[in-house]
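Incident log, support desk, overnight shift.

02:14 A customer reports that sequence design results differ from what the structure should imply. Their input is reproduced verbatim below. On-call engineer (initials T.W.) acknowledged and began investigating.
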């Protein structure tokens, strides 16, 4: 859960939360926290405004990085809590402050 009043519940396609942030979180219900890293895969039915709203909500709630994957263009928009935004294409490598040392090539996302 990203917030209350209004209640905002989001289920990203992929989410990562550092283990130390989960200490003391109840096992039942929806935890009130934003994932450190969010990955959203854009479907053909989603509009740009819907995607932008999700990105803004995750960052406002405390996510460090939001990756928006566009299968049709084989690219990834990377949004950081610092305000940085970059578009990564095949040949690029994704990193995130949420996982220091982690690297993922954009090409690996689109491998068959």
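02:41 Re-run completed on a clean worker. Output:
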């Amino acid at each position: 859960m990203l917030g209350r009043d209004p209640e905002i519940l989001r289920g990203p396609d992929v989410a990562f939360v550092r283990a130390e942030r989960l200490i003391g979180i109840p096992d039942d219900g929806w935890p009130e926290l934003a994932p450190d890293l969010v990955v959203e895969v854009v479907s053909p039915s989603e509009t740009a405004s819907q995607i932008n709203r999700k990105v803004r909500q995750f960052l406002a709630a405390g996510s460090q990085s939001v990756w928006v994957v566009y299968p049709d263009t084989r690219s990834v928009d990377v949004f950081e809590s610092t305000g940085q935004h970059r578009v990564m294409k095949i040949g690029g490598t994704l990193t995130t402050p949420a996982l220091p040392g982690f690297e993922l090539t954009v090409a690996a996302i689109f491998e068959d």
